[in-house]
Amino acid sequence: MPVTMEINVRTIYIIISFISAGSVSRSNLGLPEDWSRVASWLDYKGPVGPAPVIDDSIFKVKCPELPTLVRYDTEPPASFWKSFPSTSLPLKATTKLNPGVLARILCKQRHLLTPTQHQRGIKVVDYLTNGAPSCQKSPALPATFCRNANLS
Questions:
Q1: Largest alpha-carbon pair distance within the chain?
Q2: 99-108 and 115-130 helices, crossing angle to 10°
Q3: What is the pTM of this model?
């Protein structure tokens, strides 16, 4: 009965590593031929020099105009936020499109549009005129509770 061997990626990797290991010398890998030299690197017991001192004067603040806080674990004063750029949010959605003009263009150019494209254009005019649906599903999803959550 013939012996079959299942070949998988791990087996191929082991075979290639075994075959290629004999053809590469230590000098090809950047290692000295004398293994005791490598062992001395691994088992080094000599003095270790001091760590290089990092010069803090090299550090450049990215945004020096922004204020810093003495403590960052408390709420900053209102004056802290005045130097940060901000833009107020719009009170309602606005558009540069005129829905009436778009509807007239759709009617005039209907012969150039497929029925699906025309329908989509009509839907856009409706959304611009009356507002788009919020696509919220009802009923609302229930809250998620975890047994290991701290409820105190």
A1: 89
A2: 160
A3: 0.35
